[in-house]
């Protein structure tokens, strides 16, 4: 797929598909029984497949944006940052989710606030794939 549409488009398409998927999770929670299990499993598989596509596209962009001599350092910094956020993410997300569940408001109460914030982060990530934020690689493969 990357050769047909390019790593930037893979990341953009994945981000665009993730936004409505994340928005649907609070409504999926209203289901019960077998329908809840099936829909939640399908949504989770789709979300994981999209996440892998986005990550792969971003890794390809990163590897093309530096010279061969700098590739190891760039990958090391990238993996270090990714590991740091994977370590901090569950604790920060858990405390944010706990706070959101206690928050009683007429607008974006409970888990709707959590998924709204996740969508905001996804939109910021999508916007970062456009100029002037994205430096295209030397071979101009978009």
Describe this structure in words.
The protein is an all-alpha fold. The chain has one domain (4-128). The protein has 5 helices and no strands. The two termini are 13 Å apart. 10% of the residues are buried.
Low-confidence stretches: none
Q: In DSSP terms, counting alpha (H) and pi (I) runs of 4 or more, how many helices?
A: 5
Spell out the helices and strands N to C.
Answer: HHHHH
> Strand fraction band?
under 5%
Number of domains: 1
Shape: globular
**What's the helical proportion of residues?**
over 70%
Task: Kindly report the average pLDDT value.
Answer: 86
The end-to-end span amounts to: 13 Å
Q: Profile the largest sheet.
A: none
The Rg value, from CA coordinates, equals: 18 Å
Number of β-strand runs: 0
Strand-pairing-aware structural class:
mainly alpha
Short descriptors:
mainly alpha, transmembrane helix, transport, 142 residues, membrane
Topology diagram in text:
Elements: H1 2-5, H2 7-28, H3 33-65, H4 71-102, H5 111-127
């Amino acid at each position: 797929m990357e050769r047909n549409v390019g790593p930037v488009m893979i990341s953009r398409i994945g981000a665009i598909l993730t936004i409505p998927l994340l928005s649907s999770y609070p409504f999926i929670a209203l289901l019960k029984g077998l329908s809840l299990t099936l829909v939640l499993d399908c949504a989770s598989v789709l979300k994981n497949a999209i996440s892998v596509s986005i990550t792969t596209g971003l890794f390809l962009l990163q590897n093309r944006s530096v010279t061969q001599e700098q590739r190891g350092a760039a990958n090391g910094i990238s993996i270090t940052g990714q590991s740091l956020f994977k370590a901090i993410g569950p604790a920060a997300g858990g405390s944010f989710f706990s706070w959101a569940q206690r928050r009683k408001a007429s607008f974006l109460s409970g888990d709707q606030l959590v998924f709204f914030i996740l969508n905001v982060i996804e939109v910021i990530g999508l916007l970062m794939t456009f100029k002037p934020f994205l430096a295209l690689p030397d071979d101009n493969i978009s």
